[in-house]
Amino acid sequence: MRFLARTHQLPARMAAGALILHSGLSKKDADEQKAAGLHGMAAGAYPFLKEMDPAAFTRLLSCSEIALGAALLLPVVPSVVAGAALTAFSAGLLGFYLRTPGMRREGSVLPTEQGLSVAKDVWLLGIGASLLTEELTCGDGHRMGA
User: Fold this and answer.
1) Are 24 and 71 within 8 A, CB to CB?
2) For this UniProt entry, which segments traverse the membrane (predicted)?
3) Residues paired with residue 104 on neighbouring β-strands, in sequence order
């Protein structure tokens, strides 16, 4: 089996992948109340989601997180692919943080107590951008099994 992840990328991929996979699995069997809450928060930041059914939104979010978590955990998925997906996903999380009232201190990007749980996801953006940047700028073939 040929691995497409660089050895030194594995700890960051495993940490992010395990967290995101767990998050997706925890939403898999969400009840109506949990789905409505997730959908309401997301639609507040991204108004185009208001038209989507809460249960369908939650299923889509769950499946997306499961797929992204698995892509990060499986070293056969190229790091450029996993990094691009993680960067896009985490940019959406940070957009949610920036657009949701009460998440940030007035006139600042610093989080309030309520925003801390989302603001900390900036590390996911850092991991995704690092994977993507390295793969797009370093073609030296230092991959596991290469």
Assistant:
1) no
2) 80-98
3) 111
pLDDT tens-digit readout, 42-98: 999 999 999 999 999 999 999 999 999 999 999 999 999 999 999 999 999 999 999
- Domain tally for the chain? 1
**Could you tell me the residue range of the domain that residue 71 belongs to?**
7-137
Phi/psi at 111 (nearest 5 deg)?
A: -75, 155
Q: What are the φ and ψ backbone dihedral angles of 62, each rounded to 5 degrees?
A: -60, -50
Q: Using an 8 Å Cβ cutoff, are 54 and 32 in contact? A: yes
Could you say which DSSP state residue 105 is in? -
| CA-based R_g, the chain, Å | 17
Question: What's the pLDDT band for 2 if we cut at 50, 70, 90?
Answer: low
Q: What's the DSSP call for residue 75?
A: T
* Domain contains 2: no
* Inside any domain, residue 143: no
- The confidence band for 4, taking pLDDT boundaries of 50, 70 and 90, is confident
Locate 19 and state its tokens.
């967290």
